[in-house]
Amino acid sequence: MAFKIQFDWQPELVDETNFSGSYGLLKIFAGDQNLTDNRSKSTNLFQEGVVVSAIPLAEWFVSNWHFLNFEQHFTQHFKDEFAFESRHRVLHANYGFVWPDITFIRFGDSIKIESKKLEIESTELIFTSVLDGSWIDVADFEREIFQYVNKVVEFLGEQNELIIDLIADWKTIQNLDSDESDFSKVSASLGYNPFTVEDEIANQIIQLKSHIPKDFVYEFSNFLHPVNFLKEAKKIDQVFEKFEKEVILGSSQLSIFKSSIVGFDSDLAKPWERGYYLAKKLTEILGFGETIIREGEEALFRKFELEENEQKKAIIYCDSLLIFIDAALLYSSGNPLMLINESRGDNRKFAFLRLIYKYLNQDKKARSFVFGKNNNGFDEQVSRAFAAEFLAPQGALRKELGNKKVLAKSELRKLAEKWIIPEKVLIHQINNHQIVKISDY
Question: Domain range holding 426?
Fold first, then answer.
């Protein structure tokens, strides 16, 4: 979805405040929806924007730059909720102006935008736009707020006393080198301001970066407890080093299989649509179409041309993965090696298929990870939809359930046991594809 910030300057608006000359009409769009639509309480007239100073929003964007771009939602329960909200909710741009109630929170590779109706007793305006949640690409979001801040600086001029501090902070962010930028991402993901973080925490972040590969350190840090993150990083580093350096494993057959899969891609916009499409496409390539995967894990692995001796090389059940990692793809001697969290039980087939999606979808030999339910990034959603549709295709489910209108939970449980499929996967498929109604008894 497109994201746009529009600010129409109105320099003729002057007053006695420090913001004189910086006013204009602010409009914020998510797709075609104007999130700044509002209505006057006294006249009941609607307006497509709100008159504010451009400076407070620019300052809020700059002071929360790394949090907005890199702090993810699922770390919130480790932190002060009000502080988290102040970094992600436009209301906190404040300075006495009335702002729409818009929230930006990163999930994986996307930013989720939410907008709520807002009526404040002491003000004349009622913000009327409601958006339960839409997704935009992180790069698009970053580019739009970058352009907004630049426009404010250019219009008001670098010598303007109103924005001296803003300009200094903005230049600092723009002039970060590669190491400083990586440090800032990790610091923000853990809930620490990279420019004011205490020395002890800063040193731990530097050590964390030494234990986790550069391509993974940011993603990994989002799951860590701000107090225990170094201990957890050391643990996972030891696990990966053991399998990548000490154990000569990995499957050349899996590499050959990947090279035989042509055209495994999709430009569908919604993650679940993309996941369903790719699962259907792959089962057609493999030659078994819409059939429920009723067998155990070994039979599933064979569908990917992994016989028993290759399975032992390619797939390791690991009891030392951290709780938030369902599976990991490593490379040992250049060959792919899949670690599956042993504690996942009947979800291990699901975790394997999610990792297969990521393996087939990446174009280089790089580590990939399947995270638990807290990660709602675009790619994670695609991988879940892909695995669910691969295990229990909607067409096969409709055929199995026939003319049933209602499915009791006890029946659902029996089907999950019979087909060796996680119950939650069946519930997901049945509800998402509206196959039957699941009763509470």
Answer: 252-438
Identify whether residues 300 and 430 lie together within a single domain.
Answer: yes
Q: Are 355 and 329 in contact (CB under 8 A)?
A: yes
Please give the model's pTM, rounded to 2 decimal places.
0.68
For residues 126 and 119, is the Cβ–Cβ distance under 8 A? yes
Question: Residue 33's beta-bridge partner residues?
Answer: 30
Q: How far is CA 153 from the centre of its chain?
A: 31
Domain limit, last residue, from 149, 174, 199: 174
Look at the chain and report how many structural domains it folds into: 3
Burial per residue of 21-50, b for 16 or more beta-carbon CB atoms within 10 angstroms, e otherwise = bbbbbbbbbbeeebbbbbeeeeeeeebebb
Are residues 154 and 241 both part of a single domain?
A: no
Chain centroid to CA 175: 27
Q: Read off the amino acid at residue 132.
A: D
**Assigned token pair, 393:** 């295709």
The β-bridge relationship of strands 325-332 and 368-371 is antiparallel
β-strands 131-137, 125-127: how paired?
unpaired
**Tokens representing residue 191 in the block:** 């809930």
Q: What is the pLDDT of residues 27-58, one digit of tens each?
A: 999 999 999 999 999 899 999 999 999 999 99
**Stretch (H or E) spanning 8:** strand 3-9
Backbone angles phi, psi at 25, to 5 degrees: -95, 115
